[in-house]
Amino acid sequence: MPKYPVEPFRIKMVEPIRLISPQARVEAMHTAGYNLFALKAEDVFVDLLTDSGTGAMSQSQWAAIMEGDESYAGARSYYRLAEAMQDIFGFEYFVPTHQGRAAENILSSLLIKPGMSVPSNMHFDTTDANIRARGGRPTNLVMEEGLNPKSQLPFKGNMDLELLRDFIHKVGPQNIPFGTITVTNNAGGGQPVSMENIRQVAEIYHQNGIPFFIDACRYAENAYFIKMREPGYAKKTTQEIAQEMFSLADGAFMSAKKDALVNIGGFLAMRDQQLYQNVCNELILREGFPTYGGLSGRDLDAMAVGLREGLDESYLAYRLGQTAYLAGRLQEYGVPIVEPAGGHAIYVDAGSFLPHIPQAEFPGQALAAALYLQGAIRGVEIGSVMFAHPDPDTGEMVYPHLELVRLAIPRRVYTQAHLDYVADTLGELSQRCNELRGFRITYSPPLLRHFTARFEPL
Ligand code: F0G
Predict the structure, then answer these.
(1) What are residue 267's DSSP bridge partners?
(2) Which CATH code of 1.10.540.10, 3.90.1150.10, 3.30.230.10, 3.30.572.10 fits the domain covering 22-51+312-457?
(3) Residue 90 and residue 82: Cα distance in Å, rounded?
């Protein structure tokens, strides 16, 4: 039986949850148009929809909140955050934003012109959509093994360097306003990226005069994977590893709702002064003054403390251990998952779990709906509902490589018994997976359709 390091904390405040009856779940799903985003959270027992903004803050963070300085400009809270930013990321400039996608929007609006391409290992949904919203083309160049759920390579989030060189050559560096890489690779199983790969990707971008921005949401988990798996890093602290990672880039954007352990927040950081001035102007127009950027002073303080706590190595050992534990339990039941376990989530391979459901009928959606009906567990589809889109040149539907259901683990929130409940429920479901049927979409918006689409069972 796999085990994980004992939680390096104890629980000081609890939030009750309840398991509603199977019949009530059927009704809730019907009312929600079979979209799990439309469920009432109180009708969910174990909520693994996202690890974003759902973590438990520490006593130090709550204490810091009481110290929040709500001055409009130049608040003490801002300077405390700036100090943490400098210690970890080391960029010359940064602005706080209310979450990651606000930073993505600002960067995209300033740099992307229609028809331009932005390469990454894999863009996550809001990054993909913010690039498309400006007429750009998000391009995913993860290594081939990163799309193979069974491959055991240690850094399956790595970018394919050959593909990246060829791609830049094909579209021309002048048509790439910036390049990026997502650590860890959320759309591809939460798999880490090695320092070596980040270094080489940076080199390729820089040889071509392309600014390099890291999507840093889960940089601390990525740093711990580097420490554990990459030769030469075992003795470095996660903070030193993070500093090295960001020293290779020209900037970063981050949703602080992940590895900064806060319920809301983000930032956009950069080295270029001219870009910073433009960012400030855009920020002032849409988000707020550059020393608060759409957040309150107390949010900035919670983030300053959370950034440091997120790098704590006993926390990270427990955190990644917990994910690996759930992976092990699911494998005992023969549930197909993306291996090895990623950082923040387990990704059930719905394509393999439900081979009788074609991509056009959304196997991931079918599994996510069934998991809710079976045990009031909420995961999220990361497959064709989220990523299938018409090709901008031919209009033909392009389907993603993987049909996944992500079970994201909120930070410091659920216990081993919760994880066992999830594993046992999926185990029960695997007994009757051939009974599950696909879905048809009855409503779909043009961008980010997974949030608000409605479905009908086939
Ligand atoms: N980049 C990555 C890799 C993400 O995972 C997310 C959010 C964002 C950017 C955008 O950040 O939500 O603060 O605007 N991911 C969440 C998730 C929502 O469930 O994985 P945001």
Answers:
(1) 96, 254
(2) 3.90.1150.10
(3) 10
Kindly state the DSSP code that residue 370 receives in the 8-state scheme: H
* pLDDT at position 1: 59
What pLDDT, in 10s, does the model give residues 14-32? 999 999 999 999 999 999 9
Ligand 1 pocket, 197 CB below 6 A? Answer: no
Query: Is the Cβ atom of 124 under 6 angstroms away from ligand 1?
Result: yes
Q: Which two three-digit tokens encode residue 214? A: 């890291």
- Does residue 126 have its Cβ closer than 6 Å to ligand 1? yes
Q: Which residues contact 270 (CB under 8 A, 6 or more apart)?
A: 91, 92, 93, 94, 213, 250, 251, 276, 279
Q: Give yes or no for residue 215 CB within 6 A of ligand 1.
A: yes
Residue 397, strand partner residues: 390
Best CATH choice for the domain 59-309 from the list 3.40.640.10, 3.30.360.10, 2.60.40.730, 3.40.50.1000: 3.40.640.10
Give the torsion sign (CA, 191, 196, 200, 203). Answer: positive
pLDDT tens string 267-308: 999 999 999 999 999 999 999 999 999 999 999 999 999 999
Question: Could you identify the residue written with the tokens 């609890």?
Answer: 14
Q: 271 is written with which tokens?
A: 């080295």
| Per-residue pLDDT tens over the stretch 359-411 | 999 999 999 999 999 999 999 999 999 989 888 889 899 999 899 999 999 99
Query: Does the beta carbon of 47 sit less than 6 angstroms from any atom of ligand 1?
Result: no
Lookup result for tokens 């048509």: 175
- CA dihedral (316, 319, 320, 325) positive or negative: positive
Per-residue pLDDT of 216-252, as tens digits, reads 999 999 999 999 999 999 999 999 999 999 999 999 9
* Domain boundaries along the sequence of the chain: 22-51+312-457, 59-309
Minimal CA–CA distance to 218: which of 177, 266, 153? Answer: 266
For 183-286, where are the E strands, in sequence order?
212-215, 251-255, 266-270
22-51+312-457 shares its CATH topology with 59-309: no
pLDDT of res. 422: 98
Distance of CA 328 to the CA centre of its chain: 22
* Spacing, Cα 105 to ligand 1 middle (Å): 13
Supply φ then ψ for residue 241, to 5 degrees: -65, -45
Q: Ligand 1, from 47, 51, 52: best to mutate by most atoms within 8 Å of Cβ?
A: 52
